[in-house]
């Protein structure tokens, strides 16, 4: 049994899309803080799609003061292919204590050398791709991580679910129907393909402002 409690926290439309509508960022991060994460885990695509300049605006530091987890959380980024190259900027962000690269034995040597030169701590887990179970184990052993919040798209979320590593799903349901087949979904069905139906147990329902509904589920583990 894993010593790390993993929570997927995400905002979706009624048709389970995670883009194509306006995300309520204030509500999202206020609720995210309730999980008191020791680490945040994201995929390379999420980081590459974000906007992080090396010059951090003053308001970022003010916002971070409102979230105690920022001073202790690790930002762990799954990047086996070595696609993320804005680590200098990531290290300056006030929203986490430090970033950590999750790589594999197949990560290009030159990228590992780049990470070392930038002073980025690295976890090597897995051969061809990141072994998520092993990576979580290293985060626990090396940094004392016990609670992880997943802040990522459907591919990483699906991979974690498929590996049986997710304990809880926190879903902010938004009053929109996106209907665009090209937009990202809550989980990537290609990753979950051939996976048996995974049962959830509803444990919290709360109506929020602006038609938002907060749902929390426990993932029922198979024995």
Structure characterization notes:
The protein is an alpha/beta fold. It folds into 2 domains: about 110 residues, Dihydrofolate Reductase, subunit A, CATH 3.40.430.10; about 110 residues, 3-Layer(aba) Sandwich (Dihydrofolate Reductase, subunit A), CATH 3.40.430. It contains 8 helices and 9 strands. The chain has a 9-stranded mixed β-sheet, with helices on both faces. The model has no long low-confidence stretch (mean pLDDT about 90).
The CATH architecture of the largest domain: 3-Layer(aba) Sandwich
Quickly name the level 1 CATH class of the largest domain.
Answer: Alpha Beta
In round numbers, the mean pLDDT is 92
Roughly what percent helix? 25-40%
| Relevant CATH superfamily of the largest domain | Dihydrofolate Reductase, subunit A
Number of strands: 9
In angstroms, what is the radius of gyration?
17 Å
| CATH topology value of the largest domain | Dihydrofolate Reductase, subunit A
The helix count comes to 8
Short description:
The chain is α/β, with parallel strands linked by helices. 28% of the residues lie in helices and 24% in strands.
């Amino acid at each position: 049994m894993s010593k790390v409690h993993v929570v997927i926290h995400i905002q979706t439309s009624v048709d389970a899309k995670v883009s194509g509508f306006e995300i309520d960022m204030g509500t999202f991060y206020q609720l995210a803080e309730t999980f008191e994460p020791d680490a945040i885990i994201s995929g390379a695509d999420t980081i590459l799609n974000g906007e992080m300049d090396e010059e951090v605006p003053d308001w970022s530091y003010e916002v971070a003061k409102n979230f105690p987890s920022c001073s202790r959380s690790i930002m762990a980024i799954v990047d086996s292919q070595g696609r993320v190259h804005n680590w200098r900027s990531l290290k300056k962000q006030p929203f986490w204590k430090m970033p950590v690269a999750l790589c594999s034995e197949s990560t290009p040597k030159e990228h590992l050398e780049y990470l070392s030169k930038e002073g980025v701590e690295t976890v090597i887990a897995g051969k061809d791709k990141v072994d998520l179970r092993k990576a979580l184990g290293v985060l626990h052993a090396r940094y004392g991580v016990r609670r992880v919040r997943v802040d990522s798209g459907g591919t990483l979320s699906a991979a974690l679910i498929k590996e049986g590593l997710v304990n809880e799903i926190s879903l902010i349901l938004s009053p929109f129907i996106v209907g665009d087949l090209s937009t990202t979904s809550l989980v990537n069905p290609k990753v979950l393909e051939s996976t048996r139906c995974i049962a959830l147990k509803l444990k919290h329902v709360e109506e929020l402002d602006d038609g938002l509904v907060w749902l929390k589920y426990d993932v029922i583990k198979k024995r």
